[in-house]
Amino acid sequence: MERGNQTGVRNFLLLGFSEDPDLQPLLFRLFLSMYLVTFTGNLAIILAVISDSHLHTPMYFFLSNLSFADIGFTSTTVPKMLLNLQTQSKVITYGGCLSQAFFFILFGCLDNLLLTVMAYDRFVAICHPLHYMVIMSPRVCGLLALGSWGLGVTASMLMTLTLLKLSFCRSMKIPHFFCDFPAVLNLACSDTLINHTVVYFLTITLGVFPLSGILFSYYQIFSSILRMSSVRSKYKAFSTCGSHFSVVSLFYGTGLGVYLSSAVTSSSRTSLVASVMYTTVTPMLNPFIYSLRSRDMKGALVRLISRAPCLIHRAFRGLS
User: Fold this and answer.
1) pLDDT in tens, 103-115
2) Three-state secondary structure string covering the chain
3) What is the CA radius of gyration of the chain?
4) What is the pLDDT of residues 223-232, one digit of tens each?
5) Among 13, 70, 170, 237, which is most exposed with the fewest C-beta within 10 angstroms?
């Protein structure tokens, strides 16, 4: 087969879920609905945090960053999939594939790092409540958020730049609905040792270490809660970190499910379904988890919705 290279002469084919034309409209409506719910829910959280002074706290500051990352995470993959379903096309350009891989890694790392920072925030709030405002000062929160973004961009640049050195001489068909980094590597006919080395290094640095930090934080949190004598204090502490723990469990549970399923079975269909869970379903459920478990967030969302008609009216008056 003719050798492809890093100049983008050849295109990739995203095989997606099904080649049955009768199933395409159903898949389009399903994923469009999920994407709209994800986008609207996370955007509502961002606007609620910005507009409501009661939510100007470190926890909700990081939550708004997480919601932005979730919007970016799904927007990296789902719109292209919807376009392919609507046009009955499976083609994605070489440059488009690299861009998709870059932003997917960026927002995936950002999700991971922000969940770690939020675990640290809950650790300080429950284990060191008297020093919380000093430790989690606005400057520290800004640096933690900026550091998460910086590490995410660095990791995605390193992984994407290693793809530029690869040549492709096999079938350019990717058995996925987006340019998943391992799937692209499998198509390369040149040496991928450097790519895999970078992947393992960044997985340990930005995957294993943050997860270890989250587990350690929650070990300390649960130990502190068990030492509390008041039942009311225990309930309040559990409710404070319950939403975050649910999101962490969902994110890592579905993410690990993808890689465990791909390791146990060679079925691309199983891996594809598992990928949908952490790329689409998890970002969609996060706003519901936080809004349902947080009284402050529910109140802010209600106030935001009640002001929405007035804000829209003012916007249209300004345009006219």
Assistant:
1) 999 999 999 999 9
2) CCCECCCCCCCEEECCCCCCCCCHHHHHHHHHHHHHHHHHHHHHHHHHHHHCHHHCCHHHHHHHHHHHHHHHHHHHHHHHHHHHHHHCCCEECHHHHHHHHHHHHHHHHHHHHHHHHHHHHHHHHHHCHHHHHHHCCHHHHHHHHHHHHHHHHHHHHHHHHHHCCCCECCCCEECCCCCCHHHHHCCECCCCHHHHHHHHHHHHHHHHHHHHHHHHHHHHHHHHHHCCCCHHHHHHHHHHHHHHHHHHHHHHHHHHHHHHHHHHCCCHHHHHHHHHHHHHHHHHHHHHHHHHHCHHHHHHHHHHHHHHHHHHHHHHHHHC
3) 22
4) 888 888 777 7
5) 170
| Token representation of residue 193 | 């040792």
Structure tokens belonging to residue 288: 């519901």
- Which amino acid is located at 266 in the chain? S
pTM flag (> 0.90)? no
| Tokens read off for 284 | 């969609």
